[in-house]
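ok so i was messing around last nite and threw this chain in just to see what happens. nothing serious, just curious
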Amino acid sequence: MIELGVNIDHVATIRQARRTYEPDPVWAAVEAHLGGADGITFHLREDRRHIQDDDVRRLKEATQMKLNFEMAATDEMVGIACRIRPQMAMLVPEGRHEVTTEGGLDIVGQESRLKDVIARLADAGISTSVFIDAELPQVEAAARIGAQVCEIHTGPYAHAFHDKGRDAEAPAVLAELAKIRQAGQAIRDLGMRFNAGHALNYYNVQPLARLAGVRELHIGHAIISRAVFVGLREAVREMKALMREAAAQGE
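result:
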C-alpha cells in the first residue's frame, strides 16, 4: 500500500528565521504521525539552514516513526548517519546557492565514490535511497552501486502540471508522467523500491499515486503550507486520503 513520508524541513525554516526554539520540528513529526504519516523525512544540509544536528538526535530519540535522512554524500554526513542510524538515508545533490534540492543525483558520474558511501551506510545497518532524475542510465547506475531504493525527482512533472494550468491531460504533463512511469518500471525490474517526490501538492499528487508499484511519496512544502491554515494533522490526513484514493484506482 502506498505510504506518505512528510518532510518537516520547513518547520525548522520558520524557526531558524528567528533563531529561536519554535516551532519545533520534532513536535511537527509527532503531529504528522498523528495525522497518518508513515514516515518523516528531514534534510540536514551542510550549511544547517533549517534542520540542526540536535534536531536529528531528538528525532531519533523521541519518535517511533521511520526516519528518512536526506543527506549529501560527504564524510561528515555519513558519520552522522552512522551514529544516529535512521531507517533510511537518501543521497541527494546539494548546492549552497539553491533554495531547495534541484535536480537528481548524478550517479553515473561518481559510481565508485557513491558505492563506497552506500557500503559504509549498509555496514551501519542503514538502507540507502538515491534521489535521481527519471533517466534509465541513472536507474541502472543506482542498481550497480547497491541502492535499495530510488526516489524519482518529480519536479519536472510538477512544474509542467502548474505551467499547463493544472491540466492533468496536457501533453507536456503526460510526457513527464510517462518518464516517471518508465523509470519506475525499470527500478522495479532491477529489484529496487520505487519512491517519488519533489514539488508534489494537493492538485498534482493523484496521477503520481496511481502509478504502478510506487511505494512512497515524500512531500513537505505543500503539507506545511496547508498546515498554516488547517493544522498539521489535518493537512497530513488530506494528503494521505488523496494518495490512497488514487492508489486504489491504479493504472
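not much to say yet. The beta strands are 3-7, 39-43, 66-71, 88-91, 127-132, 149-153, 193-197, 214-219.
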